[in-house]
Predict the structure.
Amino acid sequence: MKPTLLILAAGIGSRYGSLKQLDRIGPSGEAIIDYSIYDAIRAGFGKVVFVIKESIEKDFREIIIDKLKDKIPMDYVLQEIWKVPEGTVISPERKKPWGTGHAILMAAGNIDGPFAVINADDFYGRDAFRAVADYYHNWTPSRINDYCMVGYEVRNTLSEHGAVSRGVCFSDEDQHLSEVIERTRIERTPIGISYRDEKDQPVLLAENTIVSMNFWGFTPSYFGYLETGFKKFLLQNAGDPKAEYYIPTAVNELIHSREATVKLLNSSAQWFGMTYREDRDHVVAKINELVRKGEYPENLW
């Protein structure tokens, strides 16, 4: 069974200032999403599912779906604040959906085999898609709780224009994740790469620390775990206008309870993305460099 690619594209992009998911950064007007889909097709993925917001549905269909529907089977689902279990009382101050865990849950009825999850505004590199596709190449239902994640060295995931948040990864001797801890305000400082702890003190990270960039591999069992975890999350956080249910939250619970394993995949892929609007020029330059090297055609489609 060929894996499905699930692309999380419902983020508002408040720090970036626009719908960066659709920003044309390639030499022929391609968005980062185009390169992800191109790499997925080359790696052997069989379907693409998008998670978007209703407010961008029309533009998304015109710019992405209509253009690529003949390249690979496609579908999309909508992530909205109100898509929660019946009876949930939501804060009237809530302005955006419930995070990446909630986003994946929206696609539960559209995926029936192993799948990869990525952010729409991150460039992950061809080898990352190959690594996940190879991992699930001979997948059978006996591996129902066998997940994976592509890790990146933190030094290759920073922005020159502000701090970032990353999931810092810990693994055992068999290269299985033992924990992912979300760290915020990671940036390069005069003393090295650091994040801020709960007391607002800088904590150094080694340059080669492996972090999560939200490139995960899951199987359909993850939807059930997410649903249970999300209900528990809402009981405690439904009234919080800013609380979010992140992918690592559910992953850590499964690792600690030994209900699932997450293989940390090695990849030679290069990551870059657009956290801030000022990152755009760097991304455009990197894409053009890869085109010059022949890794991508000047016109993808």
